[in-house]
Amino acid sequence: RSTYFQGDRQMTQINDIQTTYLANLKSAEMALIATRAELLEALRALGVCSVDIDYDGYDDDGSVSQTVITPCDIVLENDLEHRLENFAFDFAYDLNPGFEIDGGASGHLNWDLNADSIDVQHHQCYQEYVTTLHEGL
């Protein structure tokens, strides 16, 4: 880096960028914690015991593909369901940033609301090549 960034001004800019980046990460982490607490309270109040959410991402895009609430007779309002799906996707993404890039990924998130414990099973896709070269035969 020293060949590209010389002098106090450039180093200050790098430090400012790093500080901003770290502050944004901390802010996102705090938002996840706050959202988790809000959702936990709202879902428990409805009698929800657990949530299972499947997600996937590919080609710079990702989404939640399925949400299952237990007990199954509880129906969430649209706003709460969207907040829950966004939280689950962001939670999985926080653990595996960039999973929608290249070959993509999929996964399953299980949130046990009684214990407030989240398990994430993540499947990262990748492309592999095996090259064989035959020369001078």
Q: Can you give a write-up of this model?
A:
The chain is α+β, with helices and mostly antiparallel strands and 137 residues long. Helix content is 42%, strand content 26%. It has two helices and four strands, in the order H-E-E-H-E-E. The chain has helices spanning 8-46, 78-95, and strands at residues 50-58, 61-70, 105-112, 117-124. A four-stranded antiparallel β-sheet has the order 2-1-3-4, with helices on one face.
Care to count the β-strands?
A: 4
Number of helices: 2
On the 0 to 100 scale, the average pLDDT is 87
Strand content: 25-35%
Secondary-structure-derived class: alpha+beta
Order of helices and strands: HEEHEE
The helix content, as a percent range, equals 40-55%
Low-confidence stretches: none
Main beta sheet strand tally, sense and closure: 4 strands, antiparallel
- Termini gap: 46 Å
| Widest sheet: strand ordering | 2-1-3-4
Large-scale geometry: flat
Task: Please tell me how large the radius of gyration is.
Answer: 21 Å
